[in-house]
Amino acid sequence: MLKYFGISKSLSDSAVRAPRHLPRSVFKDGLFPFSFRVTHAGAVYLGFVFLLSMTATGTGNNLMFIILAALLSSIVVSGIVSRNALKQIALSLQLPENVFAGEKVSIKISMMNLKRFFPSFSIRVQDPEMSRRESPFIRIRQWIAGGKSAPAGEMAIFRKAAYFPVLLPRETRSELTVQSFPKRGLYKLEGFWISTRFPFGFFQRGRLVAAEGEILVYPIVQNISVFSHLLPFLPGTIESPHPGPGETLFSIRKYQEAESARTIDWKATAKTGELMAREYAREEEGRFCLILDTHVQGSAPELDTMFEKAVSFAASIAAHFVREGTGTEFLTPSEYVPRGIGLDHLYRILRSLAVVKREKRKTAGPGWDLAHFPAVKNDRLLKELFSEKVFKIIVTSSPRESVPSAVLRSSHVVFFDEL
Amino acid sequence: MSFPRLFKAVSFCLISSGFVAITAAGIVTWISAILFSAVLIFSWVVDSARIERSVAGRILKFLAPGCIPLFIIDYTLLSRSFENAVFHLILFVAAIKLLTLSKDRDYLLLYVISFTQLLAAASRTVDPVFTACFLLFLFSAVASMILFEMRRSNARLQKEAKVHPVIVPRELHGTGMELFSPFPVKTMLVTCAGITLLILFISIPLFFLLPRATLGSYRQPSGKTLMTSGFSDRVELGHIGTIKQSDAVVMRVKTDKAFEELPHDIKWRGLAFDLYDGRAWTRSEQARNPIPTQGWYYKLENYTQRANLTNQTFFVEALSTDAVFASHRVLAVSRDVGRLRHDTLGNLYTSGHALNKLKYTAISDTITPDASEMSDLRPIPEDILRVYTRVPSVDPRIARLARRVTEKAANRYEKALTLERYLRSTYEYSLVLRGTPKSADPLAMFLFDVRKGHCEYFASALAIMLRQLGIPSRLVNGFRRGEYNSIGESWTVRQYDAHSWIEAYFPPYGWIEFDPTPPEPRPPRSALSRLLYDLSDAANLWWWENIVNYDSARQRRAVAAFLDRLDNVNSRIRGIAALAHGKIQSGARAFATGWIILLTIVALAAAAMLLIRPMRRLIIKPIRRRLVRENPRSLTIDFYEEAITLLGSKGMRLVRGQTPLEFAHGLRGHPAASAFLALTVMYNEARFARFDIRLRAREAEALLNALRESLSAGASRP
Q1: How do the domains of chain A map onto residue ranges?
Q2: Per residue in B469-481, pLDDT tens?
Q3: Which residues of chain A are within 8 Å of residue B163 when distances are taken between CB atoms?
Q4: CATH code of domain A9-218
Q5: Higher-confidence position of A144 and A80
Q6: Domain check: are B508 and B575 in the same one?
Q7: Which of A197, A272, B164, B398 has the most beta carbons within 10 angstroms of its beta carbon?
Q8: What is the DSSP string of A284-335?
Q9: Among A103-112, A342-351, A402-411, where is mean pLDDT lowest?
């Protein structure tokens, strides 16, 4: 697996206090701006307080009433203290610039206590997406759906929880954790869900700290050797089908006079008894284009897996050619990336691949025409791309016979079912 | 101190506080206390987690089920008390857990045991020491629960994902406690103390507001019972003398009258005796009759003549007697005394609260008899004469002495007074009795040989002498009024205040008290010790009166009083409003002047509030700068901060993450930009570089002034 670490990017809260009007989606998905929950220990505690209140009332023992009053006021104090602990908290998240699906990345989360006098204790930080898993509304919804609905938290940026035992007034503390993103795509941060069981662990209070940020997770990039059986040898410079000055052997033919004696192949001459000469293929700075056909016929769930494999394959191919120094163009029905080299160019392709989506084939027939690629507005450019002048690796789900022979002549086609 | 050490310390404090509570309540024996303390210290010193993992730990775990047979042996053979056996069992389990303390659940079990011990102490004591134990428990429980929660939250998180701080100290690496470094112990303890105070602050009103039911069948625990001889069915001469050696508090009495308004010789009557056999006093009539109730009181008398009513509230310690104390003549006793009964001698008994602490109110008629109203012509009822003039066979010298002393007295009442005075003045008070109790006729020995004795002898002598003169009399045992505690506004009565006196019958008053005993000599006490004692005694009384005896009736009264106060406040406000309205209507100048003064004060205060900032800038800061002129570096920083404040007031604020220079460059185009940029450069130099101290401070001040001028010229945000 390849790793690309760049400058880390920081996602931080835009506002210290929770906004009065939170995005509707927050409410819609069963997450409220504030929450208060009785823990298991709290339920036992409340039960015990009830029993003690019965005992104290029944006996009239005032020392029991003193204990009962202290236990009851502890409940009130829990509310006050936990509310104060969650007040004026700022958070920021730092993660690598380039993140690949499935790759373990180190995440730094920082929390700052903006209070002037009061410390904050025992604060747990989660992505709101992840905290939805604990939401009773979501659980009920999943239960009603028979567990078929998509699990919450799939697209959460901060996929692990962090815990800050103490934050002194005006103090910032940072923690590191390692996590991975399961899927490629755009992950958006809705905010941070901070919660605490402070002080006694009987109640859990939570609050949403509004924040904005997003991270694009690139598809899985694998070593090209995994796919070597699918590919011809593809060096950086593409050999032409015509003889000429080059390094690759094109053919062995009869020696012609006036040719340089260096061209004579003495082994072949000995075998045939005639002077034979080596002819080399003409090397050209040929154009190379990677094409991902995102049109897929059908809607079976296994096609999704196949599509993801195709995207990963395309990303791996792009990474390989860019590393080889080959000028690469990239084309999908929704985007065209012109020719370029270097890591920046690779990331441009990967960004495109990160968000590429499976599209339903519009035409009913098996045809595979240029109209599939509306991203290229210029017809001339599109025709050029599909001409013999450009060598192409096409990744498609279309049937083999549907690919025009003109395209096949200048392309290496990888079908989804081969992956 | 690291987090684990602090956690262990507060947990042990919590465990100890529960143990101290039951020890202070007298629940555990001293042997159990010593053994458990040893285990506690041992567990603190050694690494209990290591014991838990070792062979010893396994043996201890194996022994743990053995607590059940031990409990049975303890219950049947050793302590022979179910409660004590249960407490020993709890201590045994706690000791085993202390020795193998390692997991969260071990700590949790010990917390629960500690809380159980506190509850047990609450049910077995009413002593104010409980408060100290409770406060210790509360603080340590708050600290322990907080740290326990943090420990569990961290463990839960570390189970889900490995999270660690950016820099992990080497000693904590791999312990799972990396996030707790550095741990601010002081801040944590201050927070715990703050939370404890907050809990107490809310608990106090809550305690008084929690609804009390009148159905409670709970009897307050007795604590230590005081043995009080002299208040049984038969009292031999000299018994009172034995309890007079002790200074233990018997009761505290609050009266509705001030110290100086009470009769100087008021006494708390206990039991009266009518039958003297020559050595001891007994009661001829043992029957105890119920007393009718009226409202919240037992009603003892249906009528009073020119009564001087005195309301007394008694807080009686647990005594080995069922006698109810009150000053003579009792008219009514509150029903919280329990089931009250009386006999023909006017003695009051309670059965419900025998051997327990007792609180009740008594209303007595403490009128002083008028001698002019006494006359021998008023007949004494026959039944009284028959019972209270019986005299055993005593030395005939006693009768002769009585007649000789009273030969000049005009009437029966005067005779009684003369004899009282005679005994007081002729005989000496002494607790050291030489031979009198063992002699054949102790009274004769006292009157004619020893001529010294304590109150019982004086009272018995007077009673017998009066009887021989045909005046009905009886002996009364009780207590003198005791010491007055000016802080608690109560009388503290101790065992050495136990006293004997007599009651003689004189119509129309009935039974009148006579006290022939001369004053007892008391060792003087220093003012400081007196003050300290009064303070602690007042606190003790307050605890008992307002906490231990707080009940539904008091709660109702408190609510009613609160509502009354609200009504009062309401009516006062209405009165003031009406007055104000009337004054305004009439245009009263004085009232208007008052308003003008008030408004002027408000206006001045508002002006002062508005002027605080300019005053600070124009007066205080320059003065401070003059004073700290020797440090121009801090001056320059000060100037810069003031410039930031000035710019902030115009809407130009430093954004988080922006460096001072970035901020200064961001003001480009603003009239104040150049001055501020120069000041920023100086500020950076002052903070991070070499700085020409003498020149730059003045320059900074000049730049600040320039900035201020350009801003006041009406510059707005660029």
Answers
A1: 9-218, 224-228+286-418, 249-283
A2: 889 999 998 888 8
A3: 160-163, 175-177
A4: 2.60.40.10
A5: A80
A6: no
A7: A197
A8: E--EEEEEE--EES---HHHHHHHHHHHHHHHHHHHHHHHHT--EEEE-SS-
A9: A402-411
Q: Which structural domain range is residue B635 located in?
A: 628-712
Query: Residues of A with CB below 8 A from B198's CB?
Result: 73, 77, 80-81
pLDDT of the residue at B716? 43
Same domain, B480 and B567: no
State chain B's mean pLDDT as an integer.
81
pLDDT grade for B192, boundaries at 50, 70 and 90 = very high
Q: State the complex-level ipTM.
A: 0.72
Name the percent of chain B lying above pLDDT 90: 8
Q: How confident is the model at residue B541 (pLDDT cuts 50, 70, 90)?
A: confident
Nearest chain B residue to A53 by CA distance is B210
Q: Which of B125, B149, B551 sits opposite A122 (nearest CB)?
A: B149
> Considering CB atoms only, which of A59, A121, A200 is closest to B218?
A59
- The answer as to whether B326 is a domain residue is yes
- The pLDDT value recorded for residue A3 is 29
Say whether both B44 and B104 belong to one domain: yes
CA-to-CA separations, B522 to A7, B160, B247, B496, B517, in angstroms, rounded: 91, 75, 12, 10, 14
Residue type at B104?
D
B152 to chain A: nearest residue by CA? Answer: A201
- B214 assigned to some structural domain: no
**Beta carbons within 8 Å of B645's beta carbon, 6+ residues apart:** none
Residue B619 lies in a domain: no
Residue B446: inside a domain: yes
Residue B488 · residue B538 · CB < 8 Å? yes
Whether B511 and B487 share a structural domain: yes
pLDDT tens, position by position, B73-123: 877 777 777 777 888 888 888 888 888 777 888 888 899 999 998 998 888
A40 touches chain B (CB under 8 A): no
Residue B707 in contact with residue B675, Cβ under 8 Å? yes
Number of structural domains found in chain B = 4
A59 touches chain B (CB under 8 A): yes
CB contact A408 to B (< 8 Å):
no
Helix axes B82-99, B104-124, angle to 10 degrees: 150
